[in-house]
Specification:
Shape: globular
Helix content: 40-55%
Structural class: alpha/beta
Largest sheet: 7 strands, mixed
């Protein structure tokens, strides 16, 4: 019985901590998946040698620098260039032919993290002859992560893996044409970085974003609870023009959401959907 009370008390401490973060800083993690959030908070608590989440709450309220560290912990930063190469192959096959019919293309990468998947799509669009017709918007709620993405600087020891992904994704050129080697770093070339407008946007609290032809939000919704997933999917629906495409991660789906019947399935395995045009 006492163990159950302890678990309940700990969850209450976490709830109050997340409430404090929202009220003090405006970042809302209250509807993130509970297990993920607790795991990230536990890691920071252990690193800081704190006895409880209540102690962490006090530090969050009083010390903005500590909150900035915690914000990085709670950000979702697992990414790589041409992640899931088969997904990019399918985008080339089923999405690009439609984009080629548009005079101007607006692409939104929501929850872009440090930018690898944004630049991957930039490379793909360049190879498909769409570079001059596209504007890419990339958003995240964490300004530090956005700054990394703007710089487009990645460890050189990852380039071999990125190159293999690029080739498996159907790359038509040489991956080394898209970056400059600078000692132990690879710097994405400016012609790709110049096509991307990076800006702050929080999927949890912010509103509709443009009228997009294509939205990527891959492997972000898995960190949200069911209610927040539905809310964000509605946001994407409202942000897409009729006939626009939505691309989710391999473990995500619009199934069971309130907008499910407003999309047609383009490719179930790759989680590519298209907003239906009005009859």
């Amino acid at each position: 019985m006492s163990e159950m009370v302890t678990v309940a008390d700990e969850q209450l401490e976490i709830d109050l901590l997340l409430e404090a973060i929202f009220r003090k800083y405006g970042y809302d993690f209250r509807d993130y998946a509970g297990a993920h959030t607790k795991r990230r908070l536990d890691l920071r608590r252990a690193r800081e040698g704190m006895a409880s989440f209540s102690e962490m709450q006090h530090k969050v309220i009083r010390e903005p620098d500590f909150f900035n560290k915690l914000l990085l912990d709670l950000s979702i930063n697992v990414t790589e260039m041409f992640r899931d190469p088969w997904f990019y192959q399918k985008v080339r096959e089923v999405v690009v032919p439609h984009l080629q019919t548009y005079p101007f293309i607006k692409v939104w990468h929501a929850g872009c993290s440090s930018g690898q998947e944004v630049y991957s799509m930039g490379i793909l669009l360049e190879e498909e002859g769409l570079k001059e017709r596209v504007q890419i918007y990339a958003t995240d709620f964490n300004e530090r992560i956005l700054e990394r993405a703007r710089q487009g600087i990645y460890p050189m020891n990852l380039v071999r893996e990125y190159t293999a992904n690029y080739q498996k994704a159907g790359g038509t050129g040489s991956f080394c044409d898209y970056y400059t080697a600078d000692y132990d770093s690879a710097v994405i070339k400016s012609r790709l970085r110049d096509k991307v407008l990076f800006s702050s946007h929080n999927l949890v609290t912010d509103s509709v974003f443009g009228e997009m032809n294509l939205i990527f939000c891959r492997n972000v919704l898995i960190y949200f609870n069911r209610e927040l997933q539905s809310k964000v999917l509605k946001l994407f629906y409202d942000s897409l023009c009729p006939g626009g495409f939505l691309c989710l991660g391999s473990k995500e789906s619009i199934r069971f959401s309130e907008v499910a019947d407003k999309f047609e399935v383009v490719s179930e395995r790759e989680r590519i959907y298209r907003k239906k045009r009005l009859p």
